[in-house]
Design a protein that fits this description.
By secondary structure, the protein is mainly α. The protein has 2 domains: 1-175, MFS general substrate transporter like domains (Growth Hormone, Chain: A, Up-down Bundle); 225-441, Growth Hormone, Chain: A. It is built from 21 helices and 2 strands. Strand 1 and strand 2 (461-467) form a beta hairpin. Helix 2 (26-58) packs antiparallel against helix 3 (60-66). The model has no long low-confidence stretch (mean pLDDT 90). It catalyses: D-fructose(out) = D-fructose(in). This is Solute carrier family 2, facilitated glucose transporter member 5.
Length: 468
């Protein structure tokens, strides 16, 4: 939304003048603009809340397809808002696009994680973050003045997100539904086997089907969990604490704020006004590159290593960035150090938190609790993004060059939490991960033998056995 800022603010002012013959003050225009920008986060929050029930009722694939209704309606409102002379249509459009984003960011990693083989689960789930970063770069590219970031074209820029929606509507129907959803939620064993066969391009491995059957046996007779039920269930206490803290940290670490601060830093480094838009594309490309690197490394190094490493590096860069901002008027090369910090900070974010955070609910919760877990994680992300958007201008005005110190503290505490409490999930089955969390959830209590139902697929039949 950076590119059309001035044009939309002018449009709001002209609309008020034409309708009611009122000339808005600068602070009033800024208020309306803040609403337009920030209400996207509230839309995302609403989307995160309805994503769970939608995935349970319609399935993962159909939920993503239905989600395009919000996107297309929002794009239609945006592209016609100028002709209708209605800034209210832009606000409604932003809410609808926010809902679309909230649903997508919950359902995509869930769909990918449930469809991927165990040894590639992290990399496949993380591809959602890779293409989200790619979408950011595309948005920055089409937003430059030479394409759609000019005064006559800003309404088309706001509606350009309909294009990937059309692509999804044309391609996604040809892909299979999540195998886990088909077997565990729908009880469709043949549908699950066919989906696995299409996804793998070969005959289904009995070990992979056994794992899904085991999860089905463990959740047999259980209905999908509601978010508030997870808060009262001690067996998922630390899983829930983990996703809430890590999802909140992803927004409170200041990555979105550093994008906001980038224009000021580039200007101080001597970059001309008309060149700053190209430097901004560089920041998006930086995150995209980092997400690709994370995708390549996550199955080698593991989730804990990538998360901890990302937050530790971000802590270091906030310290260096604060020093650079403090001395930028005393040392000629300090603005260039600030500029370097922006790119290294975004790289560190993309290498860890940007990708790994979204896949954790898939790996930490079973099929009945997973939609509710994503609702909680998504809600924390969008609420904290909204809060961040509201308080960051005040942080800048009150703390000045020290405005990134709170973000450094968040990054340091997040790294400590991951190192102390989050088990590694790389290549592990849900049962193995649950066993590790069982030690944290029931710490101090006498170890009990917990019966586990194991399932095996043999000659077209499901064989069940119970063991401690």
């Amino acid at each position: 939304m950076n590119a059309p800022t001035i044009f939309i603010q002018t449009f709001i002012n002209e609309t008020f003048l034409e309708r009611w013959d009122i000339q808005l003050e600068d602070y009033q225009v800024t208020l309306f603009w803040t609403i337009i920008v920030s209400i996207f986060s509230l839309g995302g929050f609403a989307g995160a809340l309805i994503a769970g029930p939608m995935t349970i009722r319609y399935g993962r694939k159909k939920c993503l397809l239905l989600n395009n209704i919000f996107l297309m309606t929002g794009a239609l409102l945006a592209v016609t808002s100028r002709a209708a002379k209605s800034f209210e249509m832009i606000i409604i459009s932003r809410v609808l696009v926010g809902i679309n984003a909230g649903i997508s960011m919950n359902v995509q990693p869930m769909y990918f994680g449930e469809s991927a083989p165990k040894h590639l689960r992290g990399a496949v789930s993380l591809s959602s973050a890779v293409f989200t970063a790619f979408g950011v770069v595309l948005g920055q590219v089409v937003g430059i003045r030479e394409i759609l970031g000019s005064e006559p074209c800003w309404q088309y820029l706001l509606a350009s997100n309909a294009i990937p929606g059309f692509i999804q509507l044309l391609t996604l129907p040809w892909f299979p539904e999540s195998p886990r959803y088909l077997l565990i939620d729908r009880g469709d064993k043949e549908g699950c086997i066919n989906a696995l066969r299409r996804l793998r391009g070969c005959e289904v491995q009995s070990s992979e089907l056994d794992e899904i059957l085991q999860e089905q046996a463990e959740t047999k007779g259980m209905r999908p969990r509601r978010p508030w039920e997870l808060f009262t269930d001690r067996s998922v206490r630390w899983q829930l604490i983990s996703i809430m803290i890590i999802s909140s940290a992803m927004q409170l670490c200041g990555n979105d704020s550093i994008y906001f601060y980038a224009s000021y830093v580039f200007k101080e480094a001597g970059v001309s006004e008309n060149k700053i838009q190209y430097m901004t594309i560089g920041t998006g490309a930086c995150e995209f590159t980092a997400c690709i690197m994370c995708n390549l490394l996550i199955e080698r190094k593991g989730r804990r290593f990538m998360l901890m490493g990302g937050y530790i590096l971000m802590t270091i860069w906030t310290v260096v960035f604060t020093i650079a901002l403090s001395f930028e008027h005393y040392t000629s090369w300090m603005p260039y150090l600030s500029m370097a910090c922006i790119f290294t900070y975004i790289l560190s974010f993309g290498m860890g938190p940007a990708g790994v955070t979204g896949i954790l609910p898939t790996e930490l919760f079973n099929q009945t609790a997973r939609p509710a877990a994503y609702m909680i994680a998504g809600s924390m992300m969008w609420l904290n993004l909204f809060i961040m958007g509201m308080i960051f201008p005040f942080l800048v005005s009150e703390l000045s060059e020290y405005c990134f110190v709170p973000f450094g503290v968040v990054c340091l505490l997040s790294a400590l939490f991951v190192g102390l409490f989050l088990p590694e999930t790389k290549g592990k089955s849900l049962s193995a991960i649950t066993s590790e969390f069982h030690k944290l959830n029931f710490k101090g209590q006498e170890e009990k033998c917990v019966p586990q139902t194991k399932a095996h697929y043999q000659l077209g039949e499901v064989c069940l056995s119970t063991a401690c």
